[in-house]
């Protein structure tokens, strides 16, 4: 009964033609065409219970994955960003809104199709909720497919630039154009505060308002490339950028992209690629010039002092031994004086006319040492008198603890460093202050304090002292931590990839390094910094202040001599002095205490 007279081959061709033209295939054809153009790494169908047409699956050349719940998307399964997500929706908004934060990064970098199965009267109104939800998540590459009949359909997409708008696409058009290529003047909100060398306002020589700093140049390059406009978020009564305010504004989406790069360690917002690796170290005052009264003391090093002490003991021992051998008695005072005179290569007091050859050989060794020692000291002292002498630079934590100079740190940032500040003595040197106080002292190179500063800012500020004879500050090797700085933006920002592209091109072209070096010239032009110069400094002439240490030693010596002389007088004339002292004591007691020993016998005073 199946024999109808039609050949089997002809029947097969007719059935295939009916299969092709008799099915609703416009969505399938659009997806297959898109796959051929983009060559997706993976195509993911997200649906609940809806089966995908086998003809569609047969036409796809990429691996296909089926997921029934969008919350189960595992980011580890998609190492490649070139993916296609197809959400098959049948009156189930939760299929899309249940996307977990760990899967949003994969969807943002992929392309997304919202395939609506049911017919609707107003497709744009129906898609508005889904498009607004996707824009809130920062997902731009989205199209919606609606069926008008079996052979015709409607493809919708949206653009938020410069205002939110939904428009229709044809299958011949690019379904996923680069919407960030031209933002049509879309406002990018940020804050602009003084944060040298990154961002600062100034007026140039012609009186025009400008924004200086390397970070502002990168930010403005992004706006120019993508045809966006700058929208400043005004924070009154704040001159400097406050990190806590900046992070809060970015978290609340009130700031689109931060013009100020800041440390990315420990912050709960997203950011760009790192701009630079910053070492947070101590900006410490340079060694001060040695006072004139200490010049004589600086002529002695530790080794010279040890050798001198050893030779003083040696000479004293030799003198005592020779005194015992030659005179068979000691004269301690003369021996000490003779030892000191021998050290300074002076004439001798005793044995000047002795002719013993043993004594002469011993004294010859002392004379030779004294001669070379005195000559070396005099040459070193002459060198110190003719040059400027500075103290040793402070380069370790132990030396900073010994110096005891306070270290200023911004109060908000102190919480980041507090756990790594060891030992406790070093931590106690830190003085948390507000941002205004910190910048006011540091920017003018106030040497009353040291400053906990990133290396980029320290090297920038210390360019002021390039024309000084001696620097005011040095950047020490005592570092607290190493951090990466980047431009803050909210989590899921659609501008992240585009901004990172601009940032990379600024580095590759060398513009970043030029803008970084130009920041100091701009700051000087703005009046924020100044090039400090040494004006008319002359060498300090030799004066009595250079001999102050000699006067002090001489005064102590004279005082000691007077005390010794007084003691000698007391020891030699004690009987004569004892009687007047006892009489004075008795008279004082009698005047103070009338009934004191009325019958005392004072014959012992006679």
Automatic annotation (TrEMBL):
**What does UniProt give as the signal peptide span?**
1-22
List the subcellular locations: Cell membrane
Q: What is this protein called?
A: Ionotropic receptor
The protein's topology relative to the membrane is: Multi-pass membrane protein
Write the record's keywords in alphabetical order, separated by commas: Cell membrane, Glycoprotein, Membrane, Receptor, Signal, Transmembrane, Transmembrane helix
**GO cellular-component term (any):** plasma membrane
User: What broad class describes the main subcellular location of this protein?
Assistant: membrane
């Amino acid at each position: 009964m199946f024999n109808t007279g039609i050949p089997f081959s002809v029947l097969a061709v007719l059935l295939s033609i009916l299969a092709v033209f008799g099915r609703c295939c416009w969505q399938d054809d659009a997806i297959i065409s898109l796959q051929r153009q983009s060559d997706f790494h993976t195509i993911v169908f997200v649906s609940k219970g809806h089966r995908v047409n086998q003809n569609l699956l047969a036409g796809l050349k990429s691996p296909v994955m089926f997921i029934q719940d969008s919350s189960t998307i595992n980011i580890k399964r998609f190492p490649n960003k070139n993916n296609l997500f197809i959400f098959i929706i049948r009156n189930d908004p939760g299929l899309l809104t249940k996307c977990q934060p760990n899967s949003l990064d994969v969807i943002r970098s992929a392309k997304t199709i919202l395939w609506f199965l049911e017919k609707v009267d107003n497709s744009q109104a129906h898609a508005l909720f889904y498009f607004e939800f996707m824009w809130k998540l920062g997902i731009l590459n989205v199209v919606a497919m609606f069926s008008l009949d079996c052979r015709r359909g409607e493809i919708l997409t949206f653009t938020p630039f410069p205002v939110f708008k939904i428009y229709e696409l044809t299958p011949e058009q690019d379904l996923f154009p680069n919407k960030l290529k031209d933002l049509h003047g879309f406002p990018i909100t940020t804050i602009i505060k003084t944060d040298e060398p990154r961002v600062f306002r100034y007026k140039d020589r012609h009186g025009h308002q400008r924004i200086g700093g390397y970070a502002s140049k990168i930010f403005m390059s992004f706006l120019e490339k993508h045809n966006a406009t700058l929208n400043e978020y005004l924070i009154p009564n704040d001159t400097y950028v406050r990190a806590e305010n900046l992070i809060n504004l970015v978290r609340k989406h009130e700031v689109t992209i931060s013009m100020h790069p800041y440390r990315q360690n420990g912050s709960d917002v997203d950011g760009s690629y790192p701009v630079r690796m910053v070492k947070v170290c101590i900006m410490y005052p340079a060694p001060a010039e040695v006072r004139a009264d200490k010049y004589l003391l600086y002529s002695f090093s530790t080794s010279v002092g040890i050798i001198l002490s050893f030779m003083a003991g040696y000479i004293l021992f030799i003198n005592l031994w020779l005194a015992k051998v030659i005179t068979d008695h000691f004269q301690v005072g003369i021996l000490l004086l003779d030892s000191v005179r021998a050290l300074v290569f002076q004439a001798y007091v005793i044995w000047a006319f002795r002719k013993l050859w043993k004594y002469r050989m011993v004294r010859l060794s002392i004379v030779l040492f004294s001669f070379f020692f005195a000559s070396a000291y005099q040459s070193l002292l002459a060198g110190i008198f003719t040059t400027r002498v500075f103290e040793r630079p402070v380069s370790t934590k132990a030396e900073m603890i010994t110096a005891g100079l306070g270290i200023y740190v911004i109060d908000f940032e102190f919480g980041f460093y507090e756990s790594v500040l060891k030992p406790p003595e070093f931590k106690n040197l830190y003085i948390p202050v507000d941002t205004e106080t910190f910048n006011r002292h540091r920017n003018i190179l106030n040497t009353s304090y040291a400053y906990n500063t990133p290396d980029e800012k320290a090297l920038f500020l210390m360019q002021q002292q390039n024309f000084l004879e001696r620097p005011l500050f040095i950047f020490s090797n005592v570092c607290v931590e190493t951090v990466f700085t980047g431009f803050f933006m909210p989590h899921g920002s659609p501008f992240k990839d585009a901004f990172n592209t601009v940032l990379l091109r600024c580095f590759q072209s060398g513009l970043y390094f030029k803008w970084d070096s130009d920041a100091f010239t701009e700051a000087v032009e703005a009046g924020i910094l100044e090039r400090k110069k040494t004006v008319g400094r002359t060498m300090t002439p030799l004066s009595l202040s250079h001999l102050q240490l000699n006067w002090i030693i001489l005064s102590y010596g004279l005082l000691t001599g007077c005390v010794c002389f007084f003691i000698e007088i007391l020891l030699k004339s004690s009987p004569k002095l004892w009687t007047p002292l006892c009489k004075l004591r008795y008279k004082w007691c009698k005047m103070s205490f009338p009934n004191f020993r009325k019958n005392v016998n004072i014959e012992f005073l006679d």
